[in-house]
Amino acid sequence: QPTVQMTQGDLARMLDAGRSKINLALKQMETQGLLRTGYRTITLLDMAKLRTIAGREVEPL
């Protein structure tokens, strides 16, 4: 399972979004079984569903 080394703050800066909104979105995706968050990591659990949500072909990690 692909794991990305980054903080929620890093992701918020990349997306020009507030950290609290990123936290909420990650928790929702975690509840759906799409990913798992850890200390400075985000593990992608269901790449097929994440690609569908993205709405386009996503380059593999």
Word description of this protein:
It contains three helices and three strands, in the order βααββα. The protein starts with a strand and ends in a 7-residue tail after the last helix. The chain has a single domain (3-54), classed as Arc Repressor Mutant, subunit A. It has 61 residues and is α+β, with helices and mostly antiparallel strands. It has a three-stranded antiparallel β-sheet with strand order 1-3-2.
Poorly predicted segments: none
CATH class equals Mainly Alpha
- Summarize the amount of helix as a percent range: 40-55%
Q: Could you spell the SSE succession in H and E letters?
A: EHHEEH
Strand content: 15-25%
Shape: globular
Number of strand elements: 3
CATH superfamily heading: Winged helix-like DNA-binding domain superfamily/Winged helix DNA-binding domain
Q: Tell me about the biggest sheet?
A: 3 strands, antiparallel
Stated plainly, the CATH topology is called: Arc Repressor Mutant, subunit A
Number of domains: 1
For the CA atoms, what is the radius of gyration? Answer: 11 Å
Distance between the termini: 10 Å
Supply the CATH architecture: Orthogonal Bundle
The side-by-side strand order for the widest beta sheet comes to: 1-3-2
- Arithmetic mean of pLDDT: 91
Which structural class is indicated by helix and strand composition? alpha+beta
In short, what is this structure?
The chain has 61 residues and is α+β, with helices and mostly antiparallel strands. The protein contains three helices and three strands, in the order βααββα.
